[in-house]
């Protein structure tokens, strides 16, 4: 998916509508910086913004993903190509998110251990020692919260009973027993509790 081409297309359609970046941003209830980033090809509009953006610019989502007006006879073929590219893009971003989860997880555990070691074995003021222990607890809690949020949103869980792929709630991920990224959860389709594996595709 050519983000530069899509950005130029958004800019072209905005200009055709005689709108500034600020005016378009106001209609979408976002900042003009976000519009500027789209038009420079640095990122794409999020899924919630796309339908409203397309409506304002009088284009289809397929046109947006193609970075040009799509001929009706090529519409279905282009739609399939765009869907495939969007799927691949999501897989790539999910993979990066799951790598970030490891960094946050290991980083927070390492920091926690260092702080606890310092508080336990280095001679220091009692207040400083308590402050280190409290800081260590805060760091590990924040690390766990962020890591679980990433794990919940990136990719899908696959039910080992019916092969249904789904995104669970944060609460069910938080409370589920797990071995690495395989969690014992209830499948929303078959209703059975099994070990559900994290998958990207």
Q: What does it look like?
A:
- This protein folds into 3 domains: 68 residues, 434 Repressor (Amino-terminal Domain), CATH 1.10.260; 65 residues; 47 residues, no CATH class.
- The chain has 8 helices and 5 strands; from the N terminus they run H-H-H-H-H-H-H-E-E-H-E-E-E.
- The chain starts with a helix and ends with a strand.
- Helix 2 packs across helix 3.
- The chain is α+β, with helices and mostly antiparallel strands and 201 residues long.
- The longest helix has 47 residues.
- The chain has a 5-stranded antiparallel beta sheet.
Question: What is the CATH superfamily label of the largest domain?
Answer: lambda repressor-like DNA-binding domains
Give the overall form.
flat
Mean pLDDT: 89
Number of helical elements: 8
Question: Which structural class fits the helix and strand makeup?
Answer: alpha+beta
Beta-strand fraction estimate: 5-15%
> How many domains, in number, for the residues?
3
CATH architecture of the largest domain: Orthogonal Bundle
Kindly report the CATH topology of the largest domain. Answer: 434 Repressor (Amino-terminal Domain)
Low-confidence stretches: none
In terms of quaternary structure, the protein is single chain
Q: Order of strands in the sheet with the most strands?
A: 2-1-5-4-3
Helix content: 55-70%
- Based on CA atoms alone, the radius of gyration comes out at 23 Å
Question: Which helices and strands appear, and what pairs or packs with what?
Answer:
Elements: H1 3-16, H2 21-28, H3 32-39, H4 50-57, H5 61-66, H6 75-121, H7 126-153, E1 156-158, E2 165-166, H8 170-175, E3 178-179, E4 182-186, E5 193-199
Antiparallel strand pairs: 1-2, 1-5, 3-4, 4-5
């Amino acid at each position: 998916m050519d983000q530069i081409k899509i950005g130029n297309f958004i800019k072209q359609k905005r200009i055709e509508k005689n709108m500034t970046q600020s005016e378009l941003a106001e209609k979408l209830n976002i900042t003009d910086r976000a519009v500027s980033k789209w038009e420079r090809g640095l990122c794409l509009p999020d899924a919630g913004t796309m339908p409203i953006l397309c409506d304002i610019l009088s284009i289809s989502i397929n046109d947006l993903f193609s970075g040009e007006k799509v001929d009706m006879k090529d519409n279905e073929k282009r739609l399939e190509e765009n869907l495939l590219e969007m799927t691949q893009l999501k897989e790539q971003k999910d993979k990066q998110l799951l790598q970030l989860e490891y960094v946050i997880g290991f980083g927070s555990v390492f920091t926690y251990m260092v702080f606890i070691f310092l508080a336990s074995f280095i001679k220091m003021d009692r207040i400083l020692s308590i402050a280190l222990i409290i800081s260590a607890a805060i760091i590990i809690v924040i690390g766990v919260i962020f890591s679980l949020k990433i794990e919940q949103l990136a990719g899908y869980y696959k039910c080992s009973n019916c092969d249904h792929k789904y995104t669970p709630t944060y609460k069910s991920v938080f409370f589920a027993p797990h071995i690495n990224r395989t969690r014992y959860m209830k499948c929303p389709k078959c209703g059975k509790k099994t070990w559900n594996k994290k998958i990207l595709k």
